[in-house]
Design a protein that fits this description.
The complex is a heterodimer.
Chain A lengths: L2 H12 L3 H23 L2 H18 L9 H20 L27 H13 L3 H12 L4 H8 L3 H19 L11
Helix pairs in contact in A: 1-2, 2-3, 2-4, 3-4, 4-7, 6-8, 7-8
Chain B lengths: L1 H8 L5 H13 L1 H18 L8 H10 L16 H26 L40 H4 L2 H45 L9 E7 L2 H14 L3 E3 L8 E3 L19 E10 L6 H8 L47 H4 L16 H16 L3 E10 L6
Helix pairs in contact in B: 1-3, 5-7, 8-9, 9-11
The chains are: A mainly alpha, B alpha+beta.
C-alpha cells in the first residue's frame, strides 16, 4: 500500500469511514491472523487475538500521525497483543533447549522423504516451535511475515543489529535441530 | 561474518559488506554451503504460511469495532447502564411508596372510608387492583399500585424499562428546551456583537484620509495589499464616489504668465476595511507609497460639510498631510482640480517642520478608530498625485 494511499486511508478511517477500515482489513487481516496463529497455535485463540488486535488498531488510529509506516505500526500493535497472549498463556510448552528427535539424523535421507513438502513443512514447523521466543519472533516476522529487518526491529522495539544477530542465531539453531538437511545438496554460490 | 551471511541473503547488508561477503564466499566452501542451506530453509519456511482466516473473523472484527470514529469518545447515552438500573430501582421504590400511601388512603388511614373499585391504569404493564364495590371510583382515590407487588419479573422489567425511557425522554425534552432558550440568547448576542464589530458599509463611519502621493494608482494597490495582509479587505468605495478620476485636462495656453501643469493631477479613492489593531502597521506603508509632500485644500467656501485640514505643513520636502475630519462625507468626485493642487510650496519658504504624513495619518486614524470601538474600521483614502510642477 503506497504511503499516499495509506495516509488517505488513515484519514478516512479517522473520520469514521468503516469501508476504509475494511480496506485496511483486506491488506492486513490475513497476515495478522497468521501472526496470531503463530503465537496461539489455535484457530479460536488466533481469531480472538486478531479481533483484539484490529479493535486496538481501530481505536489507536485516532492517535496515529504517520510517524512510521502503517504496516509497521499495525505489526507493532499486533506484536504487543501476541506477546501479551504469550505472557498470559505460557504457551511455550516445549522448552527451547529441548532437543527434538529431528536432529538425531539427517531426515532428508529418510526413504519416506518423498512424502513431499508436507512433511518438510511439518519438520520445519516443529523446529521453529522449538526455538526460544526471541528467536522464534524474528523468524516469524522476517521469514514468515516477510518483514524487513527495519520493520522487525520496529515491531519488536529492538535495534536492527539485534534483529540481524537473532536471525543468524535462530538459523544456526534451526540447523542444529534439523540436522543440516541440505548438506549433501550444497553447491557453490 | 556468520551473521552477515543471512543478512546478505536477505539483501540487508550495506554495499561494502556485500563486497566483503562475496569475496569471502569465493574462498570459503563452508560458508557457501551455509548459504545454500539458509536459502533452502528459507524457501521451506515461506511455504509454511498457508492459514487463511475464516470469513466469520471479518464479521467479528467489524462487529466489535466501537461506534465512534477512532480517537473520539463513544456516544454516551443520556443515562448509562448503571444509572438506568439505579433509576429503575428508584422508580420502583417510588412506586412502592406510592402504593403504600395509596393503600393507606384506600384503607382509610387518611381519608374517610370509601369502598372503591379501583382500576388503575398506568403506562407499564396493565396491573389492576379490583375491589368489590358498586360505587364508581373517585378520581382522587385512584391507587397506582407498584408493579413490584403482583407483576411477574418480565412485566416489571418492561415496566422499569418504559419508565426509564420515559425519564430519558423527559430529560431530552428538558435539554432541548434549554438549548432552544439559550440559542435565542446566543443569537441576540451574536447580532449585537456583529453590529458592534462588523459594521456594514451603510452603517459604518468611514474615516477619511487624504494623502498626496507620487503615484495614486500604485499607492492604491499597495494600500489594498496592506489591508488584505492585516486581515481586512479593500472594498469598493461607497456609492456616489468614484474610485478613480482624472480631474482636469491640461491647460493649453500660449500665455507665458499662466503656469502650465506638467502632468495631470490624478486621484484615486480607495476604501479599506481593516481591524482597528492594524492601524499602527499603516504608517510604514504610507511612508513607502511616498505620502511625503504637502497637499492642502483650499477652504471650500459655501460647501456644506467642508472638511478642513487638521494639519498643514508648508515647505518642499517636508512631510505633511491634510486629513479630513472623521465622519465628514466623502469629497465630491467632481472636485475641482485647483482645490487639490499643491499649494503649500508655491512661493513659500519652509517655515515649519512637521511630523511625517504617515504618523499624522495613522495617529488620526487610530484616534478615530478608538471612538468607534473594537472591530473593523473603514478608511476612506483619497490619494492625490503630486506630479504637478513645483516652482
Amino acid at each position: 500500500m503506497a504511503s499516499e494511499n495509506e495516509r488517505q486511508l488513515v484519514e478516512r478511517i479517522q473520520a469514521g469511514d468503516r469501508r476504509a477500515f475494511e480496506r485496511l482489513l483486506d491488506a492486513y487481516e490475513t497476515r495478522v491472523y497468521r501472526l496470531a496463529l503463530r503465537f496461539t497455535h489455535s484457530v479460536a485463540d488466533a481469531e480472538d487475538v486478531t479481533q483484539e488486535i484490529f479493535v486496538g488498531v481501530y481505536k489507536g488510529l485516532g492517535q496515529f500521525r504517520g510517524g512510521s509506516a502503517l504496516g509497521t505500526w499495525i505489526y507493532r500493535v499486533a506484536m504487543n497483543h501476541c506477546l501479551e497472549f504469550r505472557r498470559k498463556r505460557k504457551l511455550d510448552s516445549i522448552p527451547f533447549d529441548e532437543e527434538i528427535s529431528l536432529a538425531s539424523s539427517d531426515w532428508r535421507d529418510d526413504p519416506f522423504q518423498s512424502a513431499g513438502r508436507q512433511e518438510v513443512s511439518e519438520k520445519v514447523e516443529a523446529a521453529i516451535n522449538c526455538l526460544s521466543p526471541v528467536h522464534r519472533d524474528v523468524i516469524v516476522l522476517h521469514e514468515l511475515q516477510g518483514m524487513t529487518y527495519q520493520e522487525v526491529a520496529a515491531a519488536l522495539d529492538v535495534p536492527v543489529g539485534t534483529v540481524k544477530s537473532r536471525l543468524s542465531n535462530a538459523f544456526r539453531r534451526l540447523r542444529d535441530l534439523l540436522g543440516g538437511y541440505v548438506r549433501e545438496e550444497g553447491a557453490p554460490v | 561474518m556468520p551473521d552477515d551471511l543471512k543478512a546478505w541473503l536477505d539483501g540487508e547488508l550495506s554495499a561494502p559488506r556485500v563486497l566483503l561477503v562475496r569475496a569471502h564466499l569465493l574462498f570459503c566452501p563452508a560458508c557457501r554451503e551455509e548459504i545454500t542451506w539458509l536459502r533452502r530453509l528459507g524457501e521451506d519456511m515461506r511455504d509454511l504460511e498457508r492459514a487463511v482466516p475464516s470469513p466469520r473473523l471479518r464479521a467479528r472484527i467489524l462487529a466489535a469495532l466501537p461506534d465512534a470514529a477512532p480517537g473520539r469518545p463513544a456516544p454516551s447515552r443520556l443515562v448509562s447502564r448503571p444509572a438506568r438500573f439505579a433509576l429503575a430501582t428508584a422508580f420502583g421504590g417510588l412506586c412502592v411508596a406510592a402504593c403504600a400511601a395509596g393503600a393507606l388512603i384506600a384503607t382509610g388511614a387518611f381519608r374517610r372510608p370509601a369502598p372503591a373499585a379501583v382500576v388503575a391504569q398506568q403506562p407499564g404493564p396493565r396491573l389492576a387492583v379490583h375491589a368489590e364495590t358498586a360505587d364508581p371510583p373517585a378520581p382522587d382515590n385512584a391507587v397506582h399500585p407498584s408493579p413490584m407487588l403482583d407483576s411477574t419479573p418480565d412485566e416489571f422489567n418492561r415496566y422499569a424499562n418504559s419508565a426509564v425511557e420515559r425519564l430519558e425522554e423527559l430529560t431530552a425534552q428538558q435539554k432541548h428546551a434549554a438549548v432552544s432558550r439559550n440559542r435565542a440568547s446566543y443569537a441576540s448576542m451574536v447580532v449585537e456583537a456583529r453590529t458592534r464589530t462588523d459594521r456594514g458599509p451603510q452603517n459604518a463611519h468611514p474615516i477619511p484620509m487624504e494623502l498626496a502621493v507620487a503615484d495614486p494608482d500604485s499607492a492604491a494597490d499597495r494600500l489594498k495589499e496592506w489591508a488584505r495582509s492585516v486581515g481586512g479587505d479593500a472594498g469598493a468605495p461607497p456609492p456616489g464616489t468614484a474610485s478613480q478620476m482624472t480631474v482636469a485636462p491640461p491647460v493649453i495656453t500660449t500665455d507665458p504668465r499662466i503656469p502650465v501643469p506638467a502632468a495631470r493631477p490624478r486621484e484615486r479613492l480607495v476604501s479599506l476595511r481593516v481591524p482597528k489593531s492594524a492601524i499602527t502597521s499603516l504608517e510604514p506603508v504610507l511612508v513607502q507609497v511616498g505620502a511625503l509632500r504637502s497637499v492642502a485644500r483650499k477652504p471650500a467656501t459655501g460647501r456644506k460639510h467642508a472638511a478642513p485640514p487638521i494639519h498643514r505643513t508648508e515647505g518642499p520636502g517636508q512631510h505633511s498631510v491634510a486629513v479630513a475630519r472623521p465622519g465628514a462625507p466623502a469629497q465630491d468626485p467632481a472636485v475641482k482640480p485647483d482645490s487639490m493642487m499643491p499649494q503649500a510650496s508655491v512661493g513659500a519658504e519652509p517655515r515649519t517642520v512637521a511630523p511625517p504624513a504617515a504618523v499624522v495619518a495613522t495617529g488620526y486614524a487610530a484616534q478615530s478608530a478608538g471612538r468607534d470601538g473594537d472591530g473593523l474600521i473603514t478608511l476612506q483614502v483619497r490619494l492625490t498625485g503630486y506630479d504637478a510642477p513645483l516652482p
